[in-house]
Write a structure and sequence with these properties.
CATH topology: TIM Barrel
Protein name: LLM class flavin-dependent oxidoreductase
GO molecular function, one term: alkanesulfonate monooxygenase activity
Order of helices and strands: EHEHEHEHHEEEHEHEHHHEEHEHEHE
Bound molecules: flavin mononucleotide
CATH class: Alpha Beta
Distance between the termini: 38 Å
Organism: Pseudomonas vanderleydeniana
Number of helices: 13
InterPro entries: Luciferase-like_dom, Luciferase-like_sf, SsuD_RutA_monooxygenase
CATH superfamily: Luciferase-like domain
Strand order of the largest sheet: 1-2-3-4-7-8-9-13
Number of strands: 14
CATH architecture: Alpha-Beta Barrel
Largest sheet: 8 strands, parallel, barrel
Helix content: 25-40%
Family: Belongs to the SsuD family.
Radius of gyration: 21 Å
């Protein structure tokens, strides 16, 4: 089983998710003076929030991470732009940019990605997402229904792959048409970005089965992850695809001893509860159409008298972050030794790409790099596309490549 480690960059603020934590790293926190000594974080200042993200990216690279996940939310920095800004400040780090087919035409995505790949040595990865909330989709102008968004995404990727692999591509689908376009000349030397996706609805799984190199998940109990992996593998097989791989996004609180790690988890938890974070989570939950994970269902039966230790769903797997609204919701909490053991446990059930991060991201990139990643030296696989035939095009209307 191969294994690779990426981290996650906080594109919508370092500490807005950590109520009560004074270590803000930019202008995303609410209230209180900035702790930034060199900048007021005004537009045009010489140290901006993007510079802070750049520090994390460099720390991640120095500490041996292979890449960084850039999350896309309307309330955050636009990830593809940030990837472009940071790519030339780093040498080897790969950047996973999330975007929705709704945000681009297939051709713009292809041309933009080809340019990026040529400039960075093929260090771009795509995370194709389709919206976790109808309300937010509508805010940004997308009035299509959930399942239709995935239908559109399948065509979008058919057309992207068609343009990428043909100089003269024709397509006549429900959402897209193409009449003769395609990458030509030097642009053809670029590699199509690896494709990640996420989402646990049936249409999301089907999209992954057809088009994804990596299916990404938020962490939950290992048996639930194993079941999801089995389901996606089975769906991918229908398209003759055996090479789909799996990624897990999980925070980490790792310390020299179990007690020190638990004390840090308790600090986050108590501060979150004291600032009313749970009520904010409940208010936001109404916006979401995405499936609730089973541990999130269990939150309904909990209340604020519960201790932080009641949120362990498996040894070292803690959902207290989710309860106080810190995404992705689950964290590995424990001694370095136990965190390594849990990573191996998830690896053994089929996860080969881990997105590990902690708060503050800069310091925790060093901690993870110094205490966790060295345990996997010599086992790291890097990422590349498995050699699978492209799945047949989706549209029944006779699209063709030439
Ligand atoms: C690792 C990971 C990263 C994700 N990144 C984003 C993101 O950047 N932006 C976003 O809107 N949704 C993101 N999602 C959410 C999913 O893409 C998806 O929208 C959500 O799970 C709901 O899909 P569904 O309703 O089809 O199940 C991410 C999910 C995972 C597991």
């Amino acid at each position: 089983m191969s294994i690779e480690f990426f981290t996650r960059l906080p594109l919508h603020g370092e500490t807005q998710f950590l109520p009560g934590d004074p270590r803000n790293r930019g202008d995303w926190h609410r209230g209180g003076p900035s702790t930034g000594a060199v900048s007021g974080f005004n537009v045009g200042d010489h140290f901006t929030y993007i510079d802070y993200l750049g520090q994390i990216a460099r720390a991640a690279e120095i500490n041996g991470f292979g890449g960084a996940l850039m999350v896309n939310a309307p309330s955050g920095e636009e990830p593809w732009t940030v990837c472009s800004l940071l790519a030339r400040e780093t040498r080897t780090l790969k950047y996973v940019t999330a975007f929705q087919p709704y945000h681009y035409t297939p051709w713009v995505a292809v041309q933009q990605a080809a340019t990026y790949q040529r400039a960075t040595g093929n260090r771009l990865i795509w995370n194709i997402i389709n919206g976790g909330s109808d309300a937010i989709q509508r805010q940004v102008g997308d009035f299509s229904e959930h399942d239709e968004r995935y239908e559109r995404a399948i065509e979008f990727m058919d057309v992207v792959k068609g343009y990428w692999n043909n100089e003269t591509f024709h397509y006549d689908g429900k959402f897209y048409k193409a009449d003769g376009g395609g990458l030509r000349g030097p642009q053809k030397k670029a590699e199509l970005p690896l494709i990640c996706t996420a989402g646990s609805s049936i249409p999301a799984r089907e999209f992954a089965a057809r088009h994804a190199d990596f299916y990404l998940m938020r962490a939950e109990h290992p048996t639930e992850i194993a079941a999801l992996i089995a389901d996606i593998r089975e769906r991918a097989l229908k398209y003759g695809r055996t090479g789909i791989r799996f990624g897990l996004s999980i925070d980490v609180i790792t310390r020299e001893t179990e007690e020190l790690a638990l004390a840090e988890a308790k600090r986050f938890f108590d501060e979150g509860i004291a600032r009313g974070a749970v009520k904010a989570v409940a208010a936001h939950a109404g916006l979401r159409t995405a499936r609730k994970l089973s541990y999130e269902h269990d939150f309904a039966g909990k209340n604020e008298t519960q201790g932080f230790e009641d949120f362990f769903i498996h040894p070292n797997v803690w959902t207290g972050f989710g309860y106080i609204g810190i995404p992705p919701g689950c964290a590995l909490v424990g001694s370095h030794e136990n965190v390594v053991a849990r990573i191996r446990e998830y690896n053994a059930i089929g996860i080969d790409l881990f997105f590990l991060a902690g708060y503050p991201h800069l310091e925790e990139a060093y901690r993870l790099g110094e205490h966790i990643l060295p345990h996997f030296r010599g086992e790291r696989s890097g990422l590349s596309r498995t050699n699978e035939p492209l799945p047949a095009l989706h549209s029944a209307n006779g699209p063709s490549g030439a």
